[in-house]
Amino acid sequence: MTRSCQKHVPLLGLFSMLCIFSVQAQNFILNKDFIFTTDFSGGGILLDFNQDGYKDMLYADKRDIYLFVNKATGKIQFDKIRLASETSPAKVFQPFDIDGDNDLDVLVGAAGRVFILENKSTLTKVELVRNPKDLFYFGSFSTKVPAYFVNDLNQDGLLDVLVAYGDTKIGFQKTDKSYFTYDVPDADLDQVQKVLPADLDKDGKPDFLLARNSASGGGLIYFLNSNNSFNSRGTAWSGPVRDFVLLDINQDSLPDVITLDYSGKNGVVVLKNTGNPANLFQADTLQVGLGGQYSSFVFTDVDQVPGEEFVVGYEQAAGLTILSGESNIQGNWTAKPIPLSYGICDKVLVGDLDKDEDMDVVQLLDDNGFLVYQNATISHSSEQNNPGLVTIYPNPSTANVRVVSQFDIQKTLLFNQHGILVKKQEGLYATEGLIDVSGQSPGNYSLEVHLSNCGPGFCRQICSTS
User: Fold this and answer.
1) Residue 314: beta bridge partners?
2) Kind of pairing between the strands at 460-464 and 56-61
């Protein structure tokens, strides 16, 4: 297990140390640098396209597809590259290695078609090139955007593509990289928002779930795989569904479903997988107030403390909300707005953009670009005796700070007074290390030192200075 210590390192003034255990809270800093005049949002995803360890962003408006390349400075900065023209009202992106060259290409769903952006990136240049041949084409007068996923559905070692576009079709890939198209029976469904594969009945074969934002019923429908025919259909939730996630809530090796009630009345919806194909899901609704009808959510760990969280955006100009649950997902839930968040949300994205080991939030606006909420950690603490695990000197310093410990140092993280990571060192694995602070402005900083083999469990200690 790992123990970590934090010490404040002032670059001006003397210090006296006081060690305290800390509890971390969320503090988001609104970044408006990426608001720009554009057409309506067309979707996006976060992904490390050039494999430099930093998340980049694929972003689309009504006319074009752009790649925002992370500058990898430890700050949230991007270079903007126009990739392709695509006059579709929306786009759906899914990364996968279609050509087997060990990098991630992107499958793009647009009005009436599915096509491929092939990854030609190097460490010095990020480049995605559109394949001139569409993978699926539904006609020049088609206006709907298909939902789809990539998976080896028939378990032959080749990646297949399932596309929901009125009809639901599977393109089974052949050894020559062409596709044999199969129509899924009883799957002529409109307003499909999302499809995902999962072995729902634990028979070793991939099934799939399909979400519909439809008032006509059948919001979440599942299709069980019977010798690749998918002819066994059932309804998991009858209300409209825009999004959902799969999670094994009770560790029984069966995928359960978590979603939100689109009406905004019931809050969190938990669909427990029974494992019985005759009655596959049992529903529980957990009351929590939402800001309206949601447009998008992400289910992830935002604050790095036990418990489950949704980051939710809305069709109305309601900003963003974080729904926080206890470590037991069926416990109490609370809803809190992200401070300063505003506007209609087309899509929510979550990822560590600045590599400070917490999750930042991106809100794709309905038009004119996107907002970034940079996650900075504030520590609330109570006093304890100083265990003397780490010594730092000289302090204050204008050049190098030496860190000495009786245990091996795994890494050091230097945060400014706003909680923003300004310097990071990894892979030390020695009892001493040097941190160059010569490039930092005068002031108080928080130095987080992660140690190995320093006792049972995990704790975080902060040493304050005055």
Assistant:
1) 294
2) unpaired
Q: Of 196, 306, 321, nearest to 246 (Cα)? A: 196
- For 212, residues 6+ apart whose C-beta sits below 8 A from its C-beta are 189, 190, 191, 192, 193, 218, 219, 220, 221, 240, 241
Asked if residue 171 lies in contact with residue 116, where contact means CB atoms within 8 angstroms, the answer is no
| Structural contact between residues 360 and 350, judged by C-beta atoms closer than 8 angstroms | yes
Q: Identify the CA nearest to 257 among candidates 194, 209, 186.
A: 209
Residue 380 exposed, middle or buried by CB count within 10 Å (0-12, 13-18, 19+): exposed
Which has the closest alpha carbon to 67: 44, 87, 89? 44
Angle at 330 between CA 328 and CA 335, to 5 degrees: 95
User: What are the tokens at 301?
Assistant: 């760990």
Which two three-digit tokens encode residue 162? 């399932």
Q: Which residue is associated with the tokens 């609330």?
A: 380
- Cα of first residue to Cα of last residue in the chain, in angstroms, is 31
> Given the structure tokens 């809803």, which residue do they identify?
335
pLDDT tens string 393-420: 777 777 888 888 877 787 787 776 555 6
Q: Which amino acid is at 376?
A: A
Report field, pTM of the whole predicted structure over 0.70 = yes
Residues 6+ positions from 267 with CB-CB distance below 8 Å: 260, 261, 285, 286, 287, 288, 289, 290, 323, 333
Dump pLDDT digits (tens) for 147-164: 999 889 999 988 899 999
Cα separation of 405 and 379, whole Å?
A: 23
Q: Give tens-digit pLDDT for 50-65.
A: 878 899 999 998 888 9
Provide the pLDDT for residue 2: 42
- One-letter amino acid for residue 11 of the chain: L
